[in-house]
Amino acid sequence: MTTFQTPRAGERMIAVEEAQERVLAEVREMGTEQVGFLDAAGRVLREDVLASYDVPQGDNTAMDGYAVRAADIENPPVRLRVIEDLPAGKVATKKIEPGTAIRIMTGALLPEGADTVAHVEITDAGSEIVLVHQSLKEGTNVRYRGEDMRSGDLVLRSGQPIGAAEIGVLAGVQRTVVRVGRRPAVAIISTGDEIVDVDDDRPFGTVVNSNSYSLASLVREAGAVPRMIGIVEDTLEATTAAIESASESDCIISTGGVSVGAYDYVKDALDALGADTKFWQVAMKPGKPVVLSRVRQRLYFGLPGNPVSCMVSFHLFIAPALRKAMGQTSNLLPPTVRTRVTGALKSRGDRRNYLRVRVVAENGELVSHPMRSQGSGVSTSMVQANGLAIAETGVTRIEAGSLVDTVLFANVFRQ
User: Fold this and answer.
1) Geometric angle at alpha carbon 142, from 139 and 145, rounded to 5°
2) Which of 44, 315, 326, 392 has CA 20 to 30 A from 348's CA?
3) CA angle (34 as vertex; 28, 39 as ends), nearest 5
4) CA distance 103 to 161
5) d(C-alpha 369, C-alpha 359), whole Å
């Protein structure tokens, strides 16, 4: 007859913040590699990038219009003689003299003698003689040399994630190859005799293996590479063999088998492999039975089998670890903001509770709409959720209209 397991000596339940500190302390940075700059999107930059020239390279116009002297249009309306047309990419062959103008297109270098650009909307758009209806201060509509970046400026710093803006800067300074952090390979194991895969028959009483696929997606979102190990039966031998095989990857995640059930073998498997376990339980809901260990020099995370517990634990602990492993140096933890809840939230109060909400901007503030169900097995509650409202230990009810700390997911404003 099988029996439930009892907690072992020293298995203290620790606070979320302490667990996050222990996780980040265990992370070792991956190596680096060079990639084409467009392939660097979603990666972490691992070198400083300096501007090799001024951007813009010379004073130029921010608007379509007419290059003029501000002194010539002090008393509008004023007629000026148009002496040249100047498209972007060309250099003026003539100099602005008093009483003259050059028709100029956005981005074109400012002609010699000009100090202002009269945008076309305040003119009659004349081609030989232009009528300017409004005076402008000197420098209006002019972008000055080096306004964006100066030669030698540090424009991108090692350790920052690369997104669309960073790709644009790399293109602007003609850095077509950059050094980035290597993507960790993350092995994903799902344990349990009750688990069947997505293409298998589904006898009554079984559970489809959704955790592995949601985790694989989260791993990709974090910038790492998932490696699906598959479903492992509830035996010590199978669990041990799966974890040992997964240690070929850079990081290991398993779901299920970390609680005190009679068929939860992760603890015994880790012992058999000589793992150095850092913690077993975190004072949070959902996700109390979370394991951090080191197996064969690889970081191992054991997550609960309930799908919401699994995903919440990933956001709080694993995503920050993967960011640090790739070389990110700041903003490792998910951001926390204050939101106003639109409905009452309930909690048992025995430990910190992370309650699923949808965060939106309304009437100049962030508000959070609670999901209808807060059960840790209700995976559909994560579909619309983009944040977690926090009910601290001892709090059993948060009234509608209250301000609460709310953890945001990376894709917080998805539609």
Assistant:
1) 110
2) 315
3) 100
4) 42
5) 6
